[in-house]
Design a protein that fits this description.
The complex is a heterodimer.
Chain A lengths: L2 E6 L3 H12 L3 E7 L6 H8 L4 E2 L3 H6 L6 E4 L3 H14 L2 E4 L7 E2 L8 H4 L2 E3 L3 H14 L2 E14 L5 H5 L1 H16 L4 E8 L7 E12 L4 H13 L5 E9 L5 E7 L11 H18 L2
Parallel strand pairs in A: 1-2, 1-4, 2-3, 4-5, 5-7, 6-7, 8-9
Antiparallel strand pairs in A: 8-10, 10-12, 11-12
Helix pairs in contact in A: 1-10, 6-8, 6-9, 6-10
Chain B lengths: L6 E2 L1 H4 L10 H13 L4 E3 L20 H10 L5 E6 L6 H9 L4 E7 L7 H9 L3 E7 L6 H15 L5 E5 L2 H9 L1
Helix pairs in contact in B: 2-3
Classes of the chains: A alpha/beta, B alpha/beta.
């Protein structure tokens, strides 16, 4: 049986997610909901014969229970308001904004919360890129002192919601680092790079710890990346875990997309959308 | 050219050349002189501004709080300014800076990315702080595009944000030094 989903928010994330859902054999998109029917992204949905609406959250108020899962791709502020509507309707929400209403989820770490929770948060693109590595490496560190995560994305891949939500991006990613590593001293930086041709999404992680156990670390990182590649095919380690001259552990990741909506450079759309689809798959196995 | 306002950013921008290690003693001394000289705005901080101390750009031995409170004490007349780059800093950092006595916020983005500063500028304007939009690396786009972006600051972001600065950026300066 296919999972019926609706997508709320028709920006970069929502549109890329729509195209990715259509590629799966376990998701049926029942509605693509935004605010303007004449927007280019609505036209994309119409061309795929998807039901569209410009009624925003009111579409769901008027059509309760139209789906099993809503992907909220709006912005942190609106997603917080929407969550109350969906809670009353008993509709599961996978939140792709940094609203932090629900518990934060990373495939391969705590996917199972999708089965029990009514609202699951997908953190941020930088969060989904870094958390699998941080969660693994934290287990190899004694006395974690500081974690810094720096992400660079192409300006063209950052829509208005991302720009207005930049503080939420930072706070939510920091909160996720603390949740998944136990380290309270964190720093998150997001850099929008306007260079042409567009730059690929890249995330660099800096870790300071009293002691790092390198035994099997590179092998474990490599095998974790193979797991990640099953749902995010162009996730690539470009700098393996390396100690610099100041004893800081550094590693770097590049994420290219599959170019469903924006071109391949926009791996930031793919990393969070592929994670959302990956946890949706869990629901089919109930 | 009437009403020229000097912002002395030596202690902030100059901090790049010493890898963000200007001492609190130097800040105190310099601020005393700048205040006596009647400089209207003295900007201090990490080279990349508020909350920029990081392994990526360079760790500062002194916290924003230490730097700003030290400068504040030595600037009885001049206004205290900070540079702040959304993506590095958040509004929480700006709130703390207000508490430490900052008067003027120069909210900076790359010249093509001014939309990133909207929420910061709006917050600071509402808090009745003096806000200047700074378009960094302004040599990278045409004068026309730059002027359009500058106009948008006043028109869209906030009626209280009346100025925009054009600024040969710290990043370009750094690249030249290291190459």
């Amino acid at each position: 049986m296919k999972i019926k989903v609706a997508i709320l928010g028709t920006g970069n994330i929502g549109t890329d997610l729509l195209l990715k859902c259509l590629k799966t054999d376990f998701i049926e998109v029942v509605a693509f909901v935004g605010r303007r029917l004449d927007s280019p992204n609505m036209q994309i949905a119409l061309s795929k014969n998807i039901l569209t609406s410009d009624q925003g959250i009111n579409y769901f108020i008027n059509n309760p229970k139209c789906c099993d899962v809503v992907y909220d791709c709006t912005n942190a502020l609106d997603a917080t308001k929407h969550s109350k509507v969906f809670k009353d309707q008993n509709v599961k929400v996978i939140d792709l904004t940094p609203a932090k209403v629900g518990d934060m989820c990373v495939p391969g770490i705590n996917d199972e919360i999708i089965l029990t929770d009514d609202n699951v948060n997908m953190i941020t693109c930088g969060g989904q890129a870094s958390m699998p590595m941080l969660h693994l490496i934290a287990q190899h560190c004694l006395g974690l002192e500081y974690i810094e995560v720096v992400s660079q994305i192409a300006s063209k891949s950052a829509g208005m919601a991302t720009r207005i939500n930049v503080d939420n991006y930072i706070k939510t990613t920091r909160k996720a680092i603390t949740k998944f590593t136990g380290c309270n001293n964190t720093k998150v930086i997001l850099n929008l790079n306007p260079a042409e041709p567009c730059v690929d999404m890249q995330t660099t992680i800096f870790i300071k710890a009293k002691n790092v156990n390198f035994n099997n670390l590179t092998e474990k990182v490599t095998s974790r990346i193979e797991e990640l590649k099953t749902y995010i095919p162009y996730y690539e380690l470009i700098l393996p875990p390396t100690l610099n001259e100041n004893g800081v552990l550094i590693l770097s990741i590049r994420v290219k997309g599959t170019g469903d909506y924006l071109p391949e450079y926009a791996g930031n759309l793919d990393i969070i959308n592929c994670a959302a689809i990956k946890i949706t798959e869990k629901l089919t196995k109930r | 050219m009437k009403n020229i306002i000097i912002t002395d950013s030596s202690l902030r921008d100059g901090n790049h050349s010493v890898k963000h290690t200007i001492s609190l003693d130097s800040i105190e001394k310099y601020c005393n002189f700048a205040d006596q000289a009647g400089i209207p705005i003295v900007e201090v901080g990490h080279g990349n501004g508020l909350a920029a101390s990081s392994l990526l750009i360079g760790k500062s031995p002194n916290s924003d709080k230490e730097i700003l409170t030290t400068a504040r004490k030595s600037l009885p007349n001049s206004k205290l300014g900070v540079h702040t780059i959304p993506g590095l800093s958040t509004i929480d950092d700006a709130k703390a800076a207000i508490d430490y006595g900052v008067d003027v916020f120069r909210v900076a983005t790359h010249c093509t990315e001014a939309t990133l500063s909207k929420s910061h500028i709006e917050y600071l304007a509402k808090s009745n702080k003096e806000v200047l939009g700074v378009l960094m690396m302004s040599a990278l786009i045409s004068p026309k595009e730059l002027a359009e972006t500058g106009k948008n600051y006043g028109r869209i972001w906030s009626p209280s944000c009346n100025y925009y600065g054009l600024y040969w950026d710290i990043f370009t300066t750094r690249c030249k030094r290291t190459s």
